[in-house]
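Hi! If you just cloned this repository, the fastest way to understand the data is to look at a raw example. We've pasted two of them here, unedited. The first protein comes first, obviously.
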Amino acid sequence: MTTPPAAAATTLAPPELAELAAQLSGPLLTPESAEYDAERSGFQLARQHRPAVIVGAARPEDVQAAVRFASRHGLPVAVQATGHASAAVAGDGGLLITTSRMRGVAVDAHARTARLAAGTRWDEVIAEAAPAGLAPLSGSLPTVGAVSYTLGGGLGPLSRRYGYAADHVRSLDVVTADGERHQVTAESSPDLFWALRGARDNVGIVVAMEIDLVPVRTLYGGAMYFTGPAAAAAVDLFAEWTRGVPDGMTSSIAVVSVPDLPMVPEPIRGRRVTHLRIAYSADDLTGGPALVAPFRELGPVIDTVGEMPVTAIASIHNDPTTPGAAESDTTFLRALSGDAVRTLLTEAGPEAASPALVEVRHLGGRLSRPADVPNAVGHRDAGYLLNVISPLRGVTAEEARARHREVLAAMAPWSTGGRGLNFIGADGARDVRSAYEPDDYARLARVKAAYDPHNLFRHNLNVPPAPDLSEQP
């Protein structure tokens, strides 16, 4: 592998910093700055970047200036919008580019597209697209940054009908490791376009992107919560039920410990429950009630499933919106057999003594088919994605990771061995290649060698450059 330049000292000379600051529209911050901690803080509080320099980018030119400065001074670069993706890797030293000031959405209703600035969140895109009867392929939590989510693949409530969000990228404005800005499409730079859609910030920093929107105004969706014997029965039913649902039905099921707080509905407050998430998208939604009828027969204690506007999509998963510390890990499953369900219930089911949230997302449908324009998103043959998440309340990070390893080891007979990039935690970050098919990982390393041979962009889920630079794509 090409050896990256040595990292610069934590403190840079004031004249050098002043020269960079003069080129910026946004702020330049160092550990001595009063705003430093607030600027580097993201949604995930378990791990946060501790850079030597922060550039609060307000425009693409700020990103270019920051990258050129980092390259000159041997500073590894990280990029952060909302900070949801820092669950796996946080860099010490180096230069952090924050993009939260770069916000904006332009919807073209006729073309069914949207152009997004680097720091735009999904809730902003949803709000702009909805009046035209359109929606983005956003995730379960719309306050996530749209760019990083999409470049990591993008698995959300509309995915079984429409595929990964990365499959619907039209073009990308990218700053590469030489500080140059490019508009990247399948025609202009096929290898870079392929790699960016699936490798996140490994080969460049995306400052804007154009995406497809889909014609969805309403869903048949919502949540069902089960307690008592029905909680385990719902997981059993989910495994059988998902084998026959149409592609328009995207669903997941989670076993979660609900906090004992006054704002939580009484039937689930302070209990370990099963949470079914339903998002049925079709031209005709009248078939929705029949599809979920088997679960209603189990007697959910809360049932919010019904026709809903796409603007209410966040209520399906009801993910936390307040920053916090958590550990997570993930693996793809080939199938969800009866033995797999029994093992999962034993390890982390409603009766298990486990604080972890365990979620199984149903894949297949459009997710299982190649993108019209190929990209680096892998493991499309998997049937399910298993996620294990532990809020760090009353447990240490190492205790949570150890428990996750136990759960994943127990589920290994049904695992493909792969991980979902956007769901990787600290353990998975040590094995980034598990997010890709072997040939795709090798190709990514060659593209990395071509566009970032010194691994400037390495404070991330890193794909190092191929060792032989002659093996460029």
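Ok, and the second one:
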Amino acid sequence: MTSQVRGVQLARLLGQWHALPGRRRSPDYAALAAAVRGLLSDARLPLGVRLPAERELAEALRISRTTVTAAYRELRETGHLASRRGAGSWTMLPGTHRVASTGLWTPLDDRDMIDLGVAALAAPAELVPAARAAAEDLPRYLAGAGYHPTGIIELREAVARSYTERGLPTSAEQIMVTSGTQHALDLVLRLALAPGGSVLVESPTYPNALAALAARRARISTHGLATDGTGWDADLLLGSIRQTRPKLAYLIPEFQNPTGHLMPAELREPLVAAAHAAGTDLVVDESFVDLPLDGTTLPPPIAAFDRHSRVVSIGGMSKPYWGGLRIGWVRASAPQVQRLAAARVGVDMASPVLDQLVAVHLLGRAPTIVAARRTQLAAQRDALLGALAQRLPDWRVSVPRGGVTLWAELDGPISSALARAAEEVGVRLAPGPRFGLDGTLERFLRLPFTLPAADLVEAVGRLAAVRYDLDRGTGRPRWREPAVIA
């Protein structure tokens, strides 16, 4: 049975649809149609949901029914709405689009796009030799069934060593290998969070984490991060945990995605203590922990202060190595790992053995690979900062001490409008609202520096031209759906 969104619900989702920059000269029906398409691309409005009747939406938005009728007609013409007399109208997407790995939709003809929506590097040169070596190791496993719910022992030992080298003694029994960091988060949520449970997250935060929490119907509260300084306000963060006593808190302390902040050492121990007192489990996402830049020294892992199994750490190979290698992990107490493995059986049984062997060989060369990554990222970051200072000097950007992203404060609440306009000049963006709740963060934009420097400079030049056009209200906005945000 097709679900339905009511007029008041859609009006709330649309927000200030008629007042976005760059639309002052657009007819109201065109602006309304574009806003609905934006909700579809953000997955804030599901596919296959029935929209309210024209009269109902007109009353909810306090506009004429003629405007809604024209907007629905345009949505049908662009392939975003299907209607049948007597049955209503429901959302869809054009047939020239395919589903991407996050469930978002992406055009098929986007090969020339400069994609700043994905914060991930291309594969290192060492990947192919590692794959060949893994293939040679594979016969040792072929006599068995191939199911290793917690991961092959070689990889678990390698990951455990990496934690021990960071000052957090860890055994292989405390490691569970997953099919990527997002999979690790999903498994932890299945085990630790009942549907409708309360969760504290940073704002802004990783969009796919918000999607995972939404799938659990979590009640989400936020701790706002400052755009400069250390990011976390210690009094506010600890006070939020003590007062709201969430069941779980999801945090990214090392080079936070998207801001790039590094949680200071002096906040980490009080954070764990406050979580224990409040009965809150901490899920610590360490996706970027291998990527400090400019000689930045890392504080001790948050789990180093855990004495009561309140901290579960997740990480993976995607950011320092390659996103196409779907290897992640969970570090927790040995009993928690066993419970996670039991929960996993109902999801995917185990990670591919061959991929795990590739990961073992890459981790064996981690010092060489990661050092090269840091050098590469520092150069690309500086190129992006230089281009922004020259072409868009009114944007405020703090220099991250690690990670792969800049968090830019724009010169107006234009992030979504800029992202839509940028698609027309061949630049894909991840606008600020994707990193928050309820359509906020329109003054911000995440800019990864994972592409070659020349591409980053070219992208900034195109963005500068688009920004100028938004002020003038020129151009004919057409629709293209964004692809993966990672």
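That's it. A detail worth noticing about the second one: Confidence is low (pLDDT under 50) at residues 20-24, 98-105, 474-482.
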